[in-house]
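Just curious: can you write a single protein's sequence together with how it folds?
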Amino acid sequence: VNHVVSFFVKRLSIWLFNQSNLVIVPYAGLQQELRQSGVHSPIEVAKLGVDITRFTPLDQKESLRKKFALPPEAFVIGYVGRISAEKNITLLVEAFQQVHIQHKILLLVGAGEPATMERYRHLPQVRVTGFVTNVEDYLKAMDVFVMPSLTETTSLATLEAMSSGLPVVVTKVGFMKSYITKENGLFFPKNDAQVLTAKIEKLYQDEPWRRSLGRQARKTIAYAFSWERSINRIKSLL
């Protein structure tokens, strides 16, 4: 049944795209995918933007750690997004449990299936926030950001984490494989908890490298993904 529904939704989407005067997509790879799927309307690329004045780096994390009842000495590994199967949170939890760090916290910021969220909440050293409106504060309380998704488009959450000066560890999917480089982040293979564990431990052990990745991540967003740049591009297209 799901395959049948998926087929008709895809065909309807293509039909709707082809009724449009202009289709705006967030990255060139998606433009190519739509062309291959049969979309003939004009397609232009306008990258998503981040509010770089809201998502800013914070060196002193103590006040936010206290606000969220996080141990000040803990190494906080964070994720922001839906708590759902395609985000592969199970793999992140598995990797976290294998990390050899004495004081560690896994901070999952987002909402999803209540039963799944409740299951994670009962795991030691794992915090699940549910839906929040102040994502930027939670990002500022983290040390490392992980996006373990099986599928993504741009991953706005990853852009916001980078804008917050965090080193990011992500899967090589969607647009992330283009804007993440060895200077501003790390990749790990999908479904490989062991490699993810090793990357997190290396970041924990090498603070100068961790800070360098975070600084370069912030520069990437400020230069290429600011709201102002994104809005100007959309205005010029329209």
DSSP finds eleven helices and eight strands in the chain. The mean pLDDT is 95. The CA atoms of residues 176 and 194 lie 21 Å apart. The first strand starts at residue 23 and ends at 25.
